[in-house]
Amino acid sequence: MGKRQLGIGRNLRKRQKTEEASKAEKKQADGLKESAEKDTEEYITVPLDEEVDAEDPTSQLRALWKTWLDSDRESELLLNGIVNECDRLVRLADKASKTRKDQTIELESDVYAIFGMALAELAKFHTEDTTAGSTVKDYFDNAVERIELGEARKPENGIIRLAHASVDLSRIPLEYISKMDLDSKAKAFPNIEKLLDKALEEYSSGYKLVKKDKEQEKAFRQKWVLEIFDSLDDLIDIVKSFGEDHNEQIDSDDEESLEEAEAGANGKTIVKKEHPLYQIIEQVEEDGNKYNSFFEKQLLNFLKEVSVAKKATAGEEELKQGAESKLGLWLLAKAAELQFEGEDKAHDEGIKILRKAIEHLEKSWNEEIPSTWVDLAEAKISLGNLYDDKSEEQDKLYEEAAKYLRKANNATHGKYQEILDSLVDGESN
Questions:
Q1: 178-199 confidence digits (pLDDT tens)
Q2: How far apart are CA 118 and CA 103, in angstroms?
Q3: N or C end of the chain: smaller count of CB under 10 Å?
Q4: Contact 335/350 with Cβ under 8 angstroms?
């Protein structure tokens, strides 16, 4: 039989992220997208888990933040509530410290971390806002200021540094890359490569501090930490695809533009050396680049941390499956970028990578999330494509993939019918 088509879930994955990644209770966010000016007049009722201390404001703040993370993240009102509560706690602590001159009132690290990340999340609601004090830059400046305040007061706390990495990785595409085109000049922007390297160093140093403290290790096992890898992955994708839209609108009489487009089509950097993304694009196009190395190493570290508990809670099990899925999909994409034909070494490396991807995707299998079945099917097909046509190994992998696709197709009322038909037709030829 012929080789099966790659990229089964690729066109659907971005949509699936919003459809299935969040299993949150939408009732928290429905109808709450009011302006920030009304946040003092409206109230939100947030149910607290049994383990949350209703008398502890920091515990309540964590519950608010968890509600945001588990929601569809469309409620600016909820975010404003979180920011206001963080601000209140910081002010109260500062006031108490001034009153008691012989004593410094310390806040828990979560307050500073949540404060900064909530402000960074608010920036996403103001991408078109040009009002002084309410621009994307203003929100990120304030977010970094709160994070740095926490770092100054708690220099040995790794959670705050991880939050700093989260904020910086959100800032780069939203504040800077969104304003770039192919004619942008590096002198008009900060050094993007240095900003990204700084974010990765913040994460690495934060993780080292976390490993020194049992309480920090426990706080490390959270959804927002895992989502840092999404931010990095998305950022690298943005950088890799930068300029592709430009290629579709090229003037056929513009010889220089045509040469740039041809270079882009061949997978080469199409921006000029003076472009603010030139250096980082050069980096991500290299095999084994530092960003790929960081992603794999640190995601494996995260996976180890969430796998230590012998009796994992439902939340910890969900985090573990999420980490397995991210690592499996990342390896799947890594294998797809290899050039197999005519290179035995690359071909063998591709098989090795895909087998690892399958191991992780099997562990990410969730009976309630059909996309996890489809991801595994895609990995099986990708591996099958590397074996000889109609070989025993290929047939077995294709059959297993078809089984997973049928299961997913039935569960989603025909969502994967076209893909399944393509696979079955290929098997019959």
A1: 999 999 999 999 999 999 999 9
A2: 29
A3: C
A4: yes
Answer yes or no: is 410 within a domain: no
State the total domains in the chain: 1
Q: Give the residue numbers spanning the domain of 90.
A: 26-246+256-360
Tell me the pTM.
Answer: 0.84
Contact 329, 299 (CB under 8 A): no
Q: How far apart are CA 293 and CA 301, in angstroms?
A: 12
Cα distance between residue 363 and residue 264, in whole Å:
37
Q: Which residue blocks in 221-369 are alpha helix, DSSP H?
A: 223-241, 244-247, 255-265, 278-284, 290-306, 314-337, 344-363
Helices 290-306 and 223-241: angle between axes, nearest 10 degrees = 160
Return the SS3 of 292: helix
pLDDT in tens, 389-421: 989 999 999 999 999 999 999 999 999 999 888
Q: What angle do CA 134, 140, 142 make, to 5 degrees?
A: 80
Q: How far apart are the first and last CA of the chain?
A: 6
Query: Of 301, 70, 108, whose CA–CA distance to 206 is shortest?
Result: 301
CB 380 within 8 Å of CB 362: no
Lowest pLDDT segment from 42-51, 98-107, 150-159, 296-305: 42-51
Q: How far apart are CA 321 and CA 195, in angstroms?
A: 30
According to DSSP, residue 215 is labeled H
Q: What are the phi and psi torsion angles at 400 (to 5°)?
A: -65, -40
In a domain, 207, yes or no: yes
